[in-house]
Amino acid sequence: MSRVLVWLRNDLRVADNPLWCVDASAETMLCVYVLDRRWLAPWRPGGARARIGPARLRFLWESLMALRGELLVRGSDLLVCVGDPVDELQAVLRRAPADVIRVREDSGWQECDDVQRLASRLPSAVKLERVSGGTLFTREQLPFAPGALPTTFSAFRRRVTGLAPQPSRMAPVTLPPWPDEAPRGLPPLTRVAPEAAEWRPDPMGGPWPEGGERVGRERLQRFLAGPLDHYRDTRNALRGDDASSRLSPWLAWGCLSAGQVMAQLAERPADEDAAATASREAFVDELLWREYFHWAARQDGAALFGERRLPVAHEPALEAWCAGATGVPFIDAPMRELVGTGWLSNRARQNVASFLVKDLQVDWRLGAAWFERWLVDYDAASNWENWRYVAGNGRDPRPNRYFNVMRQALRYDADGDYVAHWLPDLASLPPGPARHAPWRYQPARFAGPRVEPEAWRPILASSAVVTGQ
User: Fold this and answer.
1) CA separation for the pair 415, 396 (Å, rounded)
2) CB 3.0 to 4.6 Å from 45: which of 41, 300, 312, 386, for a disulfide?
3) Residue 164 CB: number of other CB atoms within 10 A?
4) In sequence order, which residues have a C-beta less than 8 Å from that of residue 325 and are 6 or more positions away?
5) pLDDT of residue 438
6) Is the pLDDT assigned to residue 9 strictly greater than 50?
7) Model's pTM, two decimal places?
């Protein structure tokens, strides 16, 4: 007989969760989630706003409440603490001793460091079990050593093509009972973070992606039932609930696993239509990108975050970017959408990141930290590896990787409908280039941008954006 403590992190589901695979003779099981107090610290030195923003916290709390409901019907429960993860777990163990602690191996450097700190403080009688999970493939499946990860995604994809993802596990029917001496439940969000409790998503952003396993499964079924067939053609759209899969929030928090997504995709009949087949392949590529970045983060460790300290100096260009006040509609619109909803399309993310780093010349890590605060689908590997990629110092480094914002705007938002949606003052301008360069169309009404790179000027000149009208 053994007493088990399950330490939950980014794995907030009951189905396809290897943490529940405990010995049948387990006497009790205590399930603990710790909200790291470091997440409530300022997102940058000298700031006042927390590293985890209200949108992320709202989705997390919804996911935790949903998970608790799933555990209760299986004879278990959930305990949510706030503080240093290692300190909180030790406090729990003093009240409810355990013989085994199970925790999932994570790609994040800080998460790995927490596990090491806990291991160093545990008595020898307590066994710490690190469980693999969170990825499509196990370490043993990879056709290369962990330290020999291919330097480009294309090379990685070639090496893993043909590998079978880990089989998806069914949800347990019952779980070992909760220990009598253990506390349970979660504190109200109003006490943890009043800002998050009061925050409401901007209705202009469409339906809120409610946290929890059930909603994540429903979203997956909806996507596979139709939007998947045109994914390749719509994934670069800036708006639209079904333009992309929109599964990333549930994947990031572990309400869904990548293995579940691949298993459901495999059950779908093969497509006879060439366009649908291409869309399916494009979607699998996105799952493989996520996989690649998770293995890359494990290899990079603390180097993933660049230098350990973020710049302290006040940077007006950064503040304008964060506030959606750069004067460039194709940047300001998505930055306002981000703060209003906790979400951005992939195309918008690439453009605002490139603009901050290449045009405004701001340290890329500050942009990554702002995304960490706001994105509902934030996970350390995907966020920081993507920012390094755009900055040109990550995987497949290319210092000249640059998104010409004006060219992108005229290609992906030709009529300016997206920017006018989030910047209503632009709706009075004629659809087309004028909405992307309003300072040229009506200079007396619209202030110019902080920067207007030379690369934009021939594009604007050829796009019939007139001045003085």
Assistant:
1) 34
2) 312
3) 10
4) 332
5) 95
6) yes
7) 0.95
> d(Cα 155, Cα 396) in Å, to the nearest integer?
10
Decide if 32 contacts 64 (C-beta within 8 A): no
One-letter amino acid at 54 equals: P
Give residue 308's pLDDT: 64
d(CA 407, CA 414): 10
Q: How many whole angstroms separate alpha carbon 425 and alpha carbon 418?
A: 12
Range in 38-52, 127-141, 452-466 with the lowest mean pLDDT: 452-466
Q: Going by C-beta distance under 8 Å and a sequence separation of 6 or more, which residues neighbour residue 330?
A: 351, 405, 406, 408, 409, 413, 419, 436
